[in-house]
Design a protein that fits this description.
The protein is an alpha+beta fold and 238 residues long. It has nine helices and eleven strands. It folds into two domains: 131 residues, Jelly Rolls (Sandwich); 80 residues, Winged helix-like DNA-binding domain superfamily/Winged helix DNA-binding domain (Arc Repressor Mutant, subunit A, Orthogonal Bundle), CATH 1.10.10.10.
Length: 238
């Protein structure tokens, strides 16, 4: 669904905050804004689903989008939520493959669509944008390596601590204070699946972190002691 075009200033501000374009200069951001088309999605609408052609990506300007997978048995696993400044659909645009997940608007949402053909032309014309994309993909690869290392080599409490620290840094930036608050978007079953554990084992790991004063739990909100989490995350390997 098309949407009124945001001001160039607002479009550029959102694109500048998008991790995919982190570090791009003002001229490159302006060029991206020039090819971005506004769109809106009603709450509950399916934006794209696994297996769809990946002919565009979208940077969220308002609302919230859930990225999820559905198993053959019909079980849904939430991968993450995307808010203002986040990008969805970028991997299919970059690797020329079909969508790898479903995207659903959990609230009335707006975004800026960048189509693959226009983006490919921009990459050829503006090498600075290509460099920001390379840096983004490198960060994603590091994150994946970190997650695989966590699942393969560390006990569950350490894996959970590493997961919480990584999520805190996504929310608050790389530099964290002594304590940091985190509201978990994912349910315990979803976090357990990400960490390669069962829900009962995840509950025990959460209780262990609480007993060690690494976290204080208040429903979905956690108050995290960053130093304690880092100590647990660095615990001996399996």
């Amino acid at each position: 669904m098309t949407s009124p075009r945001p001001s160039q200033e607002d479009a550029q501000a959102v694109l500048s905050s998008c991790p995919l374009f982190a570090g791009a200069d003002a001229a490159d951001i302006a060029a991206l804004a020039a090819i971005a088309m506004p769109v809106s999605w009603p709450a509950g609408s399916l934006i794209f689903q696994q297996g769809d052609p990946g002919d565009y990506m979208a940077v969220i300007t308002e609302g919230r989008i859930r990225l999820s997978l559905t198993t053959a048995s019909g079980r849904e696993l939430t991968l993450r939520h995307a808010d203002r400044g986040a990008v969805i659909g970028e991997m299919a645009v970059l690797d020329l493959q079909d969508r790898s997940a479903d995207a659903t608007a959990t609230a009335a949402s707006r975004g800026l669509i960048i189509r693959r053909a226009a983006f490919d032309r921009l990459l050829a014309e503006r090498p600075g944008v290509a460099q920001t994309v390379i840096r983004y993909l490198s960060r994603r690869l590091r994150e994946t390596t970190y997650q695989l290392e966590s699942v393969a080599l560390y006990e569950l409490s350490a894996r959970l601590a590493r997961f919480l620290l990584a999520t805190l840094r996504q929310v608050h930036g790389e530099t964290l204070g002594d304590t940091a608050r985190l509201t978990l978007d994912l349910g315990q079953s979803e976090i357990a699946a990400i960490l390669g554990a069962s829900r009962p084992k995840l509950n025990r790991a959460l209780a262990s972190l609480s007993e060690q004063a690494a976290i204080q739990r208040n429903g979905r909100e956690l108050v995290c002691d960053v130093a304690e989490l880092e100590a647990i995350a660095a615990a001996d390997e399996i």
